[in-house]
What does this fold into?
Amino acid sequence: MVQSRMHVRRVVVTGMGIVGPVGLDVPTAWSNVASGHSGIGPITLFDASGEDWPVKIAGEARGFDPGRFMSAKEVRRADRNVQMALAASAEAVAQARLQSSSVTTDDVGVVIGSGAGGITTYTAQQAVMNRKGPQRMNPLLIPMITVDAAGIAVATRYGLHGPCVGVSSACATGADAIGVAFETIRRGDAEVMLTGGAEAAVTPLGIAGFGNLGVLSERNGSPTEASRPFDADRDGFVLSEGAGILVLESLESAVRRDVEPLAELVACASTMDAVHLTAPDQSSTQVARAIRLALGRAQITPEQVDYVNAHAAGTPLGDPLEVQAYRIVFGEHRVPVSSTKSMTGHLLGAAGAVEAIFCVQALREKCLPPTINYRTPDPACALDCVPNVARFTAPEIVLSCAIGFGGHNTAVIFTRYRGSRRTLSIRSSSRGIATSAARMNTTRRSASGGRKRP
It folds into this structure.
């Protein structure tokens, strides 16, 4: 007879990092989001001023300098999404105190996803081939554009030998990466996982591709007002770039390392519409099922949920169908549901991870971020969207919902950490992450002519 599992490993968040349109670190990004400040502006990463470009706005990680985190050689060998993943990982690792801990590198893994992978490099190298021929292309093109490139770079940076996986499920990628990392820890394959998403699709190919699909806002004259989820005058989403990385850890490991959890991750669930290449299912059945599955796994009732960070990107079709799913699940329970995409724009494969971080911050800071640019109510989107101004309250249970092209639906649930601290002996190791990081730092200093890196 198969014995039931007697102990379910609890998973907590011990570190977080962000690079994106509203800030290049978590404190700055959260401050801007909680204050209702938009990160959307004119495109500067390429020239979109001509008449051929009906979309001239995006959410760029303005001021991002990869040279703060990488040697010049490393920068040349990494796509922009990988560069931002390394920067966000550095912040998350520092907050989790992984470099100063004795956790073994065999027990630390990486799951980082991307929707478009190295599209910045792909676009640039396609231009090189068109101008100069195939022999002049970068010989590292292929490893630079793969979806798992960011995970490989992070694992190599810190010498991590646990599972390393690249995830791609369109706009649900960041949330699905968190789910994969969560289950990896729960089943005992790792003690710590660096997870999230990274995206750098604000390129000619990215803007043209999404623009030709008819899903991007063309409100070029007022960029900060262009992303307007749930509003009756919404005209599409704003394409953005960035990275969000979380350190997930078994509670036992966090206690051993004497690291205070930022929140507890209690459930993840994913479903698939399986109806169309891009359009969502009109019934919203599978979005609702993903949420219900997550609630059931966490043994939480819909009425206990205090806040939902919605996927809501501001598309005419998608927002009402998402609201319909919330009505199916929550019924008469008027849960606050806001969309931080109103400020960040849509970070594609990084969106779910960045929004998960905002959920953790909502728990920690006792603040529900607003949906800005909400001016004209839409009866099809009638809900409490925390309009325009943050709401200060004390949520205990928060839900993040991610919905991706092709029918991907993912729900992630965090709770305020309430567990008791126990004193456990700290396991020592001569091959900890601090040792591996020091080895990598030495290598980078040598490669960059002795210049120090943080």
In short: DSSP finds 14 helices and 14 strands in the chain.
